[in-house]
Amino acid sequence: MKKWWIWVSMFLVLSGCGFGEEQDVKITVDAKIPIDGTSPSLQLTRKQVYTGSLVLVNKERKLHKEAVPNDIIDLGVRDELTKGFELLESSILLSEKVARKFGEMVEAAAKDGVHDFRISSGYRDMSDQEQLFEEKGEDYALPAGHSEHNLGLSLDIGSTSGPIDQSAEGNWLKKNAWNYGFILRYPKDKTNITGIQYEPWHFRYVGLPHSLIMKEKDFVLEEYLAYLKDQGSIQVEAGGETYQIIYVPAYVPVSKQPKVSIPSGSKYDVSGDNIDGYIVTVLLTNIL
């Protein structure tokens, strides 16, 4: 009986079964945001087009210097942020916010018996990226400013037990990373859209509820941003919360940019898409 249970446990770990729960996602198109005469208005700036957790960085879209968050830290000297996982190198840089979210995810994985995580790469500055591009060439690297590693919101995740796509850690991430705001940025079946070969180790933080919507609709970031622009406004129930997500086109000149009204007392986030618009995400849970 004991041997039988051990084999079942090993199967669950290797198959990714039994980890966490699938989050239900309900999307309502054209839902109206609850505002009245007392609702505050946001004045969006041109700079915000190029900053935030949803900015697109790829071969066509180069990041602006404003996109790099101001909380980049060296995980190698922050032991309190590396509990539960290893670093491949003594110095790995990353946004502190993303590092904390990753730590929460690793802690949840440990409760499922999955605990051999390793961060192999994080943020790279432009000079490091340019050097990497010169060494490896365009087949294996991107020019400075076109790599997500220049953004500070992406990281390469490995396993100390073997290749990530053949490990319990990789299987756990496939099933659960979305619940913590992370997405697999370069999946195997979307290479024609991302322009990047399958990278089972490369994860990007986009935050909630965006990661859950992308999982629900099987979108990569390029598709998700196009979807939001096409819909204009959607209301989303996900992870026990209700959100309104509004796409706002960027006007030129910025003096013509209309203000965006949000419900009084609501929490909100603004991210640009690094193209021509803004995504305003409003938490409605305590407003409706």
Care to describe what's here?
This protein has 288 residues and is α+β, with helices and mostly antiparallel strands. The protein has two domains: 17-54 and 218-288, Phosphorylase Kinase, domain 1, CATH 3.30.200.180; 67-205, Muramoyl-pentapeptide Carboxypeptidase, domain 2, CATH 3.30.1380. It is 25% helix and 22% strand. The strands form four sheets. The protein has a five-stranded antiparallel beta sheet with strand order 1-10-11-14-13. The longest helix has 16 residues, at 96-111.
Chart the SSEs and their pairings:
Layout: H1 2-15, E1 25-29, E2 41-42, E3 72-74, E4 85-87, E5 93-95, H2 96-111, E6 117-121, H3 126-136, E7 154-159, H4 168-176, E8 182-184, H5 191-194, E9 202-205, H6 210-217, H7 221-231, E10 233-238, E11 241-249, E12 260-261, E13 267-272, E14 277-283
Parallel strand pairs: 4-6
Antiparallel strand pairs: 1-10, 2-12, 3-5, 6-7, 7-9, 8-9, 10-11, 11-14, 13-14
